[in-house]
Amino acid sequence: MLSESQLAALEKAKADKEAHGEFESECPGYCGAQDTFYVGTLKGVGRIYQQTFLDTYTKVAFAKLYDRKTPLVAADLLNDRVIPFFDEQQIPLCRVLTDRGPEFGKRGTKYIGWGERPSRPNVVSGGDR
Questions:
Q1: Residue 106 is part of a domain; what is its CATH number?
Q2: Is residue 5 exposed (0-12), middle (13-18) or buried (19+ Cβ within 10 Å)?
Q3: What is the distance between the alpha carbons of residues 86 and 89, in angstroms, rounded to a whole number?
Q4: Kindly report the CA angle at 125 between 37 and 60, in degrees rounded to 5?
Q5: Is it the case that residue 41 has pLDDT exceeding 50?
Q6: pLDDT in tens, 18-34
């Protein structure tokens, strides 16, 4: 049993999380986060970027390395690794949260067949894949 001070601390922590834009994922596939990271430069190859996707409920992650940072590359990770995995598990992937970088704009959503919902941060709805 929790004391009143412990309950108050839990309520305060919950309110602090909500104030900072954090949310609770309801189930696997409810929301995934995708981002691009600059890894570095390889001699003879050039710049290397990592595309990363994380399911916010299960913390299952996918990553691939690329030599460019484009909408096509961002969609490739979803089409090649993420969507087939969720389809195999029979789990619908409902949303993808991004930082609205140029590789995640409206042009990127056409490569995965999803429409964009105009909101901040960028949320791509996958209801009718």
A1: 3.30.420.10
A2: exposed
A3: 5
A4: 50
A5: yes
A6: 656 666 778 999 889 99
Question: In terms of DSSP H, where are the helices of 35-89?
Answer: 71-77, 83-88
Is pLDDT of 77 > 70? yes
Could you give the CA distance from residue 33 to residue 95 in angstroms, rounded to a whole number?
8
Which position has the token pair 């990127």? 108
Q: What is the pLDDT of residues 92-115, one digit of tens each?
A: 888 888 887 888 766 545 445 555
pTM of the model: 0.69
Q: Which domain holds residue 62?
A: 26-125
Opening angle at CA 70, ends 107 and 34, nearest 5: 85
Q: How many domains does the structure of the chain reveal?
A: 1
